[in-house]
């Protein structure tokens, strides 16, 4: 029973480890691997909270651990990825600019943590760091043909959108199964890998994580429908 209660925190630590591995892959020039690991981190981040509620394992430790994992996987890792792929040409200036992303993300997370009880659950205040980091990862994965100015504009916009007071609709407002958007992203990435025929250069973890995640989504969607019918 105690082990079961630890499952949500293990998912969160898995998210953090994906961020660490992403930084390592980016440092070795394996940018596609680095981007996919950030996306896998998105999967784990979307699961740990729901798993904690389902297993009645909510804890203050888990919430704090989640924030620490998010700043690494969706703040530090994407900033390194963008630096190595786009901003390294500017030398130390590029490094300084890349470092702004986790700063804005950390501020956004801190503001969210102290205002959770007052926030309407139908929307977020500012772009969540998970979404911002995921967008940068996807931009790196699919944006080889885009000019650098596009990445620069998106990077700058995401920094300010994270700390903005703009209301961003949550997944509850989208008429799709829970986390349907993230499932679509995973399927798109998987199809891209298979289409290019370069699957041997990607982490094998994605071929395990993707079907398991889709099965998890299907289970949660079915369970939600059964609750509505009761």
Automatic annotation (TrEMBL):
InterPro entries, per database record: CDP-alcohol_PTase-I (IPR050324), CDP-diaglyc--ser_O-PTrfase (IPR004533), CDP-OH_P_trans (IPR000462), CDP-OH_PTrfase_TM_dom (IPR043130), CDP_ALCOHOL_P_TRANSF_CS (IPR048254)
GO CC, any one term: membrane
EC number assigned by the record: 2.7.8.8
GO molecular function list: CDP-diacylglycerol-serine O-phosphatidyltransferase activity
Catalytic activity, reaction form: a CDP-1,2-diacyl-sn-glycerol + L-serine = a 1,2-diacyl-sn-glycero-3-phospho-L-serine + CMP + H(+)
Localization (cell): Endomembrane system
PROSITE patterns found in the cross-reference section: CDP_ALCOHOL_P_TRANSF (PS00379)
Protein name in the entry: CDP-diacylglycerol--serine O-phosphatidyltransferase
Taxonomic lineage from the root: Bacteria, Bacillati, Bacillota, Bacilli, Bacillales
């Amino acid at each position: 029973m105690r082990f079961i209660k630890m499952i949500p925190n293990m998912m969160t630590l898995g998210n953090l480890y994906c961020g660490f591995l992403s930084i390592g892959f980016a440092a070795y020039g394996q940018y596609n691997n680095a981007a996919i690991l950030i996306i896998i981190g998105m999967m784990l981040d979307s699961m740990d909270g729901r798993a904690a509620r389902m297993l009645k394992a909510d804890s203050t430790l888990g919430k704090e651990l989640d924030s620490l994992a998010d700043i690494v996987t969706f703040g530090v890792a994407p900033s390194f990825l963008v630096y190595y792929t786009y901003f390294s040409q500017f030398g130390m200036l590029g490094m300084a600019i890349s470092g702004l992303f986790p700063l804005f993300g950390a501020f956004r997370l801190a503001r969210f943590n102290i205002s959770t009880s007052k926030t309407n659950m139908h929307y977020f205040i500012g772009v969540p760091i998970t979404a911002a980091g995921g967008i940068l990862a996807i931009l790196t994965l699919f944006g080889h043909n885009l000019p650098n100015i596009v990445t620069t504009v998106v990077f700058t916009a995401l920094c300010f959108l994270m700390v903005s007071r703009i209301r961003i609709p949550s997944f509850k407002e989208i008429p799709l199964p829970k986390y349907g958007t993230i499932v679509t992203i995973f399927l798109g990435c998987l199809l891209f890998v298979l289409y290019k025929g370069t699957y041997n250069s990607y982490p094998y973890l994605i071929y395990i994580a993707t079907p398991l995640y889709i099965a998890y989504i299907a289970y949660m969607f079915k369970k939600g429908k059964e609750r509505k019918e009761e």
